[in-house]
Amino acid sequence: MTHVRFKDDLGPRIKELKKKRNAVILAHNYQLPEVQDVADYRGDSLELSRIAAKTEAGVIVFCGVHFMAETASILSPHKKVIMPDAGAGCPMATMLTAEQLRDLKQKHPQAVVVGYVNTSAEVKAELDVCCTSTNAVAVVNALQNAPEIIFVPDKYLADYVSRQTGRALITWNGFCSTHIKILPEDILREKKFHPRAKVLVHPECLPEVVAMADAALSTSQMGKYVKQTDVREMIIGTETGIIYRLKQDNPDKEFYPASERAVCPNMKRTTQEKIVQALETMQQEVRVSDEIRRRAIRAIEKMVQIV
Ligand code: 13P
Ligand code: SF4
């Protein structure tokens, strides 16, 4: 007879180490279930940065991707921010360097520069204002007097914001390599299988996909939408990891991934084992230099002011 070996639940060990280190565990909504299960807080990029700024804990264990941990370090310079796997990066964030942005700014000296939070700290240091997918439309709407607006790096989020606000935006050729895997035919197929379902997509999706959706929402906005609606079935057009949380919070509703291929490999690098290791060794630290931090925080504070 073959024995099925279950993975050890390291939850109790993590709890013990968290206490010893005075640490808090933050996990993005796309993280593996085993990571979400041991997190103190789950959320989208905006919610997690707010929690990072407010927490009393001396150590933040960031389970997400590198730019999110950097943002936590920018907001909480006196705290130690560690990532269980600092190799978890966001491909979109690497599609725009600070030098490339400086060149773009030189070509449009009048423009106000809005940057998605999915950027490196060096790029944030070049921005006038930061935004997340939750507040990108509100941020651009607040810039009524700007003669021109640069919006980087995600061309698809820029397209969505431009349609919502009626503003022409100067964009960059960045995109999310996971969200572009969701295709119009995926939505058509799922709608055929689930004709009563609402279609919710992330604004990082292709414009053709966004056009077919009932709503384009950030991950936290999806969480709220799903709780409030009377509709019981939802086709979810974003990274599939969010479905674990949606189902936990709404056990009476059904969620269908628009595409099983929408998996962000970087978001899946963090595991319970790596969290234990991070808390034992207090590695791998993510720290932003003071010079960059001072410049980058202005753009984040401007965003908070606006929204
Ligand atoms: P949210 O801010 O909506 O959680 O999005 C973060 C992200 O990386 C989306 O791909
Ligand atoms: Fe980056 Fe896309 Fe992964 Fe989000 S889902 S972290 S935007 S690659």
Architecture blueprint of SSEs:
Blueprint: H1 11-21, E1 23-28, H2 33-36, E2 41-43, H3 45-54, E3 59-63, H4 66-75, E4 80-82, H5 98-107, E5 111-116, H6 121-124, E6 129-131, H7 136-141, E7 148-152, H8 155-165, H9 184-193, E8 198-201, H10 207-212, E9 215-216, H11 219-228, E10 233-237, H12 242-249, E11 254-257, H13 272-281, H14 290-306
Parallel strand pairs: 1-2, 1-3, 3-4, 5-6, 5-7, 8-9, 8-10, 10-11
Helix pairs in contact: 1-13, 3-4, 11-12
Bound molecules: 1,3-dihydroxyacetonephosphate and iron/sulfur cluster (SF4).
1,3-dihydroxyacetonephosphate binds at residues 29, 44-45, 118, 132-133, 176, 204, 218-219.
| Name given to the CATH architecture of the largest domain | 3-Layer(aba) Sandwich
Form type? globular
Low-confidence stretches: 1-5
Strand content: 5-15%
Return the domain count: 3
Radius of gyration, taken over Cα atoms and rounded to an integer in Å? 20 Å
CATH topology of the largest domain: Rossmann fold
- What hetero molecules are bound to the protein chains? 1,3-dihydroxyacetonephosphate, iron/sulfur cluster
| Lateral strand order in the biggest sheet | 2-1-3-4
Superfamily (CATH H level) name of the largest domain: NadA-like
Mean pLDDT: 95
Q: Helix and strand succession?
A: HEHEHEHEHEHEHEHHEHEHEHEHH
- Could you give the distance between the termini? 60 Å
- Individual helix count: 14
CATH class of the largest domain: Alpha Beta
How does the major sheet shape up? 4 strands, parallel
Bin the helical content.
40-55%
Number of strands: 11
The secondary structure category is alpha/beta
